[in-house]
């Protein structure tokens, strides 16, 4: 705008005051003095003074209306400059009641700018809006509609909805148009409140006035985004409208820069892109009109290019058509070759869309893309990185990621830094050509954006280093590790490393710093002590550092060498022993305790390079079984679970409150149930009810809780089916099995979270499974008749083994191929467990949000029949196989050295503990295994994503491991 | 959907602020600051688009036009087309120019309520309402005329009474 060049005119316009559009002298003075203000402080002072004046004047009685309008405008101005003018809101609200159009409009303007849609004063305006919507003066109606758009929220929509709907038939097209848009706004606020009006929008598509038709496209676009399939019938209408628009059938007034109604065209193209996406038949209708527009589009004007760009988007979204693709490619290359940065930007964006259909077209634009990458324009650069991100293959990943990292280092914008760092990580994880490269890249990312990347990335990196890349090639693994150690020792010299990166460094040095014998123990320990001094460390880093020192010492002691405590190390330990953090204290004391142990004990506490081994946590404490057995033989009272100690064992649904406390430790928000006679459990519904009630009232679900629910959920119908079919006694049942399920599943979750995949674990798994079987069958021996007992035992055992297996299968999951074989063998022995293994594992593995397992719908009776046979076999089997192994107490006690995650602790156990005298009714347990079946698909999907995000040798990123696996 | 219309001068003084999702004044101030920081760092002769997800939330972009001492900024999400938004700014500026003849920053400062009227005729509830500056002018003048007739008190000099209704 040439004319705007005159804007620099000086502000001293006092002499011309009268010329300025009905504003008062005072307002002019205000603006003038603000304009002349030398500093921010001076400006603030002027405004505050002004606000004080207004506060006084506005409260005076009998302010003339015109003067009041002036005050309100000044208030709006003051608030625009960022000062609070809330004292005047009520006056603005009052002004909306005024009869004069000018004042009313000023009032509406002020309230729309002042008030949020949940402000208390809104309630005073609703009535006025309602009245104004019915006004004869269409300008008042328009003003009211504008205000309604801004001020009406979900709760107040019903108050004005009927009036707005009536306006759809208003004679003035401007009003109809605004009414349609207001309804659209209501839809955005609260879709449910206007969902019954969707047909009205469809009708408005056929309005006589093209403007109203155009307005109806906005809501329709939103509806179609939500649900494509319900609107396929409109495709032909949209196409014909678009055709008419493109052929200039609309009145001349809709032309804009010689383009016929470009905004309507753009919206229609967006809608058609949605409708035609992945739908060959629909796309067929669209082809013609698209090629028409391609041909007619003017590329000299800005708006022409906007339409053209929208055509390209549409082409890339609908079912591909060769001819249209050519036109789109041609248009894109025109954009890319243009001098205008705006068009280049659009070109890069279009290219990004088109390569999804045909990756080859990027090649011919290589140079243009590189130019854009070098461009001083930041927006264009970022768009280009986005394109590169989409184009990345294993062949070009190194170049692209290097570029990205360079750019990442050069910018200060944390938001974008985070984004680009996460992209680098994603690309590196997916396409890394070698592990060496991967680790180097990760180091760079950490070094420059360490505190911005997800913690998960750090854990993945540690896991990758520790796991290595294949069991066969130990040499390569250790080479990788020593190169990582080398690079970290070098990097430690740099100042200001992000804490997340320091954690990784400490961990790696602790695990592998001394592994290849290249560095002296004292050197590494010295470095680790330096870490905490040289960098400003938080407690987490210190914890990592001390654990690393502990590990190194342990390796030394285990190898029979003597560890010399460096003075700085000793002072570090002393410092931590006196730390405010109990965690750090404990670690320091543990280290001291460890130093005094003999080499064998140390070796089993912290075995060398065992970070990938799993810890089998024995939640049953079954290593105490011997002891318990002996005590009982000597006449001690057997252990009663807490619930039974409370004397509630006869009440069928006692476990509902108990379980709640046990599992969630949250407050109960509902009353305890009245005790009911024990006959209730035989009625299926009753027990289902108790089950479901269990799930309802707990707010703030946690991960473990979810898990717990997941495994508990299925019991309801099962239990009932067992009740009906087999008529076992149910007293105290659910509690009995409920708790073990809970504990074992959560242990699975923790260990899976902490670590990864242990090869040794599956054996433990099988053993523990069989152990459980025995253990369970023993438990129920008293009181149930032989046949029922066997049935129950078989059912129960399958469920027990299933719950036991969860953790092991979860841990094994990522290892892929070899684990699969194991898994299937396990699964074969317990057929219902099969589905369970697959479903449960991903849940446990999932480091993100757990997915609650919904209650499935398989007929439990049928499943029961299938269960009995195989499960029984397991029992026999397991009795013979349950191994006896010395419990490793130390390992269990020390297992919480966090960075290393988990050490293996052998937990094959003697299974002869009489754990409780719980009565029969283990029948409740059997079928949950089966019950989870229907979730298989979900779970597999989950599994797939888990693999994708994690760096695992299987699944989506084979390239990463190719060179090491050969 | 268009999230906001911002007019501010190169020093960051707001001249017109219209947010289609309510923002409290302090938040508005903060947004203005971040926008200014981004825009003032951009050289001339680069594109008019900026990805604004750091400022206005994910998926948002802004298109700006730098004219004399003013930035005209439209913030919108991915249901709009950047080039089209750029033209919408053009419509806005054209309309102002028709309205004020030889528009300058001062016009905008003193008539920001009229500016709001113009914006309301172009964008309604975050959606594009009208793209012809003639039509917008007609609507605004109609409002001015009716306001005048309903509000007979006027101290506006004759020379400008045709143009300024309020």
From TrEMBL, chain B:
Q: Which GO terms describe its biological process?
A: intracellular protein transport; vesicle-mediated transport
The entry's cellular-component GO terms read:
endomembrane system; membrane coat
The keyword Transport appears for this protein: yes
Transmembrane helix as a keyword of this entry, yes or no, is: no
Localisation per UniProt entry: Endomembrane system
Q: Name one Pfam family in it.
A: Clat_adaptor_s
Coiled-coil stretches = none
Superkingdom of this protein's organism = Eukaryota
The UniProt entry, under PROSITE patterns, shows: CLAT_ADAPTOR_S
Q: Which InterPro entries is this protein grouped with?
A: AP_complex_ssu, AP_mu_sigma_su, Clathrin_sm-chain_CS
Assigned keywords, A-Z: Membrane, Protein transport, Transport
Every copy of the AP complex mu/sigma subunit domain together lies at 1-145
Similarity comment: family membership: Belongs to the adaptor complexes small subunit family.
Know the name of this protein? AP complex subunit sigma
Organism, by scientific name, is Zingiber officinale (Ginger)
């Amino acid at each position: 705008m040439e004319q705007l060049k005159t804007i620099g005119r000086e502000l001293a316009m006092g002499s011309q005051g009268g010329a300025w559009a009905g504003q008062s002298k005072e307002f002019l003075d205000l603006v003038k003095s603000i304009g002349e203000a030398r500093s921010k402080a001076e400006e603030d002072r002027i405004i505050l003074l002004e606000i004080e004046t207004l506060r006084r004047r506005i409260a005076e009685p009998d302010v003339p209306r015109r003067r009041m309008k002036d005050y309100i405008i000044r208030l709006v101005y003051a608030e625009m400059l960022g000062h609070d003018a809330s004292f005047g809101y009520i006056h603005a609200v009052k002004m909306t009641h005024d009869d004069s159009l000018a004042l009313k409009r000023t009032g509406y303007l002020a309230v729309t700018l002042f008030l949020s849609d949940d402000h208390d004063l809104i309630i005073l305006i609703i009535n006025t809006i309602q009245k104004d919507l019915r006004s004869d003066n269409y300008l008042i109606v328009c003003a009211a509609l504008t205000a309604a758009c801004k001020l009406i929220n979900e709760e107040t929509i019903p108050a004005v909805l009927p009036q707005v709907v009536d306006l759809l038939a208003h004679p003035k097209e401007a009003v109809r148009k605004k009414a349609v848009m207001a309804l659209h706004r209501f839809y955005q606020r609260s879709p449910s409140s206007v969902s019954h009006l969707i047909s009205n929008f469809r009708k408005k598509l056929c309005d006589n006035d093209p403007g109203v038709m155009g307005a109806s496209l906005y809501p329709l676009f939103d509806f179609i985004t939500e649900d494509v399939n319900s609107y396929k019938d409109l495709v032909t209408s949209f196409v014909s409208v678009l055709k008419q628009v493109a052929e200039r059938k609309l009145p001349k007034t809709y032309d804009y820069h010689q383009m016929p109604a470009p905004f309507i065209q753009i919206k229609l193209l967006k809608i058609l892109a949605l409708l035609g996406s992945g739908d060959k038949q629909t796309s067929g209708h669209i082809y013609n009109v698209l090629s028409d527009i391609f041909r007619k589009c003017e590329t000299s004007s800005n708006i022409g290019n906007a339409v053209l760009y929208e055509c390209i988007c549409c082409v890339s979204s609908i079912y591909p058509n060769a001819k249209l693709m050519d036109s789109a490619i041609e248009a894109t290359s025109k954009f890319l070759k243009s001098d205008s940065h705006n068009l280049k930007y659009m070109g890069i964006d279009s290219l990004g869309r088109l390569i999804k259909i045909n990756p080859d077209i990027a090649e011919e634009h290589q140079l243009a893309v590189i130019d854009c990458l070098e461009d001083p324009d930041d927006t264009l650069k970022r768009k280009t990185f986005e394109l590169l991100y989409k184009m990345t293959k294993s062949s070009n990943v190194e170049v692209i990621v290097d570029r990205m990292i360079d750019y990442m280092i050069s910018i200060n914008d944390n938001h974008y830094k985070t984004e680009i760092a996460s992209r680098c990580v994603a690309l590196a994880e997916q396409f890394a050509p070698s592990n060496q490269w991967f680790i180097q890249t990760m180091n760079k990312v950490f070094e420059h954006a360490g505190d911005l990347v997800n913690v998960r990335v750090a854990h993945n990196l540690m896991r990758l280093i520790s796991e290595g890349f294949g069991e066969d090639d130990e040499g390569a693994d250790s080479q990788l590790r020593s190169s990582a150690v080398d690079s970290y020792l070098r990097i430690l010299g740099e100042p200001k490393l992000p804490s997340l990166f320091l954690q990784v460094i400490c961990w790696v040095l602790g695990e592998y710093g001394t592994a290849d014998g290249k560095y002296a123990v004292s050197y590494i320990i010295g470095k680790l002590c330096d870490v905490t001094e040289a960098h400003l460390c938080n407690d987490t880093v210190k914890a990592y550092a001390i654990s690393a020192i502990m590990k190194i010492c342990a390796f030394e002691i285990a190898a029979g060498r003597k560890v010399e405590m460096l003075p700085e190390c000793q002072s570090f330990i002393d410092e931590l022993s006196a730390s405010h953090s109990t965690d750090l204290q404990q670690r320091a004391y543990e280290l001291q305790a460890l130093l005094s142990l003999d080499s064998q004990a140390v070796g089993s506490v912290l075995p060398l390079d065992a970070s990938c081994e799993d810890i089998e946590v024995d939640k049953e404490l079954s290593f105490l079984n011997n002891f318990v057995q002996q005590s009982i033989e000597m006449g001690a009272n057997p252990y009663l679970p807490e619930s039974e100690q409370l004397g509630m064992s006869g009440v069928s649904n006692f476990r509902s409150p108990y379980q709640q406390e046990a599992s969630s430790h949250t407050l109960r928000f509902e009353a305890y149930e009245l005790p009911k006679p024990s006959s209730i459990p035989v009625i299926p519904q009753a027990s289902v009810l108790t089950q479901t009630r269990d799930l309802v009232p707990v707010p703030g679900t946690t991960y473990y809780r979810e898990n717990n629910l997941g495994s508990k959920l299925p019991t309801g119908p099962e239990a009932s089916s067992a009740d009906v079919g087999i008529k076992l006694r149910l007293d105290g049942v659910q509690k009995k099995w409920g708790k073990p399920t809970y504990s074992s599943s959560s242990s699975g979750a923790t260990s899976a979270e902490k670590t990864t995949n242990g090869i040794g674990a599956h054996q433990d798994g099988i053993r523990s499974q069989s152990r459980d079987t025995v253990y369970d069958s023993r438990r129920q021996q008293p009181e149930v008749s032989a046949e029922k007992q066997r049935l129950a035992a078989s059912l129960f055992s399958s469920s027990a083994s299933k719950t036991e297996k969860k953790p092991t299968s979860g841990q094994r999951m990522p290892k892929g191929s070899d684990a699969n074989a194991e898994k299937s063998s396990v699964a074969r022995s317990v057929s219902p467990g099969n589905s369970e293994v697959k479903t449960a594992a991903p849940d446990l593995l999932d480091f993100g949000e757990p997915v609650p397992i919904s209650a499935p719908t398989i007929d439990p009776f049928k499943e029961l029949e299938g269960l009995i046979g195989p499960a029984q076999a397991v029992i026999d089997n397991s009795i013979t196989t349950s191994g006896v192994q010395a419990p490793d107490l130390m390992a269990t006690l020390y297992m919480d050295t966090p960075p290393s995650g988990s050490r293996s602790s052998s937990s094959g156990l003697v299974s002869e503990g009489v754990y409780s005298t719980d009565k029969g009714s283990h029948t409740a347990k059997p079928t949950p295994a089966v019950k989870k079946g229907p979730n298989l698909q979900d779970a597999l999907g989950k599994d797939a994503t888990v693999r994708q995000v994690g760096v695992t040798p299987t699944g989506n990123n084979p390239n990463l491991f190719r060179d090491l696996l050969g | 959907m268009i999230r906001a219309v911002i007019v501010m001068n190169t020093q960051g003084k707001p001249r017109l602020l219209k947010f289609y999702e309510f923002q409290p004044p302090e938040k508005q101030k903060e947004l203005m600051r971040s926008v200014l920081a981004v825009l003032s760092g951009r050289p001339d002769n680069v594109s008019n688009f900026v990805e604004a997800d750091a400022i206005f939330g994910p998926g948002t972009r802004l298109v700006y036009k730098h004219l004399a001492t003013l930035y005209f900024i439209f913030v919108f999400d991915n249901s709009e087309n950047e080039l089209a938004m750029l033209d919408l700014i053009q419509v806005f500026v054209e309309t102002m120019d028709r309205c004020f003849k030889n528009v300058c920053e001062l016009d905008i400062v003193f008539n920001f309520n009229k500016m709001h009227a113009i914006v309301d005729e172009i964008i309604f509830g975050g959606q594009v309402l009208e793209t012809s500056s003639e039509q917008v002018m007609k609507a605004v003048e109609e409002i001015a005329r009716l306001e005048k007739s309903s509000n007979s008190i006027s101290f506006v000099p004759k020379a400008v009474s045709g143009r300024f209704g309020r």
